From TrEMBL:
Taxonomic superkingdom: Archaea
Listed EC numbers: 4.2.99.18
Identification of the protein by name: Endonuclease III
CDD domains named in the record: GIY-YIG_COG1833
EC supergroup of this enzyme: lyase
Pfam families xrefs: DUF123
Length: 174
């Protein structure tokens, strides 16, 4: 049963694991057209991960939320890259979050995104806030973190954070 079935018809775009996130011409390709902001929701076991030059991070078991933006020339194709990297684990890490995608203790369970050309990544990170992994994923802004921890699945909370910013949240369950 997917999120929309459990919670009634919420008008969310629920993405099935059966769909392919490849670049081929398909209806799924339109999911990644345009610019926007997104959250990746990972479920994970307790672990320690070496994250490039940032050093070692310890992660408690539960859920971690990464807040990102896709305002560059590729737009939301960046989100497509994240999904493919989590599935295939076939590239070297480029961003801090890639180390989570590549670690077997982490599993990407959902992606929430919205179309926007406004710089709302930091506002969204501020709304998600609370328990954070200091210094993670925020080297290009003044935020203290763009990675947050919850002990239970934060999907409803994340969609509310998007809506509080006036964004229509789309949910991909992976």
């Amino acid at each position: 049963m997917d999120f929309s079935e459990k919670n009634g018809s919420l008008g969310r775009n629920v993405y099935s694991e059966k769909n392919d996130c490849s670049e081929k011409d398909s209806p799924e390709k339109n999911l990644f057209s345009g610019k926007g902001v997104y959250c990746l929701i990972f479920e994970n076991r307790a672990c320690k991960i070496e994250v490039g030059k940032k050093g070692e991070f310890s992660f408690s078991p539960g859920f971690h939320i990464y807040v990102g933006s896709a305002l560059g020339p590729g737009g939301l194709k960046r989100l497509q890259r994240h999904i493919n990297l989590s599935r295939n684990r076939d590239r070297n890490p480029k961003w801090h979050v890639d180390y989570l995608h590549l670690n077997p203790a982490f599993r990407l369970v959902s992606a929430v995104y919205a179309f926007t050309s406004e710089r709302l990544e930091c506002a969204l990170a501020n709304r998600v806030g609370r328990d954070s992994v200091s210094g993670f994923g925020c080297t290009d802004c003044k935020c203290s973190s763009h990675l947050f921890y919850r002990n239970k699945n934060p999907l409803p909370e994340i969609t509310e954070a998007f809506e509080a910013l006036g964004l229509s949240a789309l949910v991909l369950e992976l």
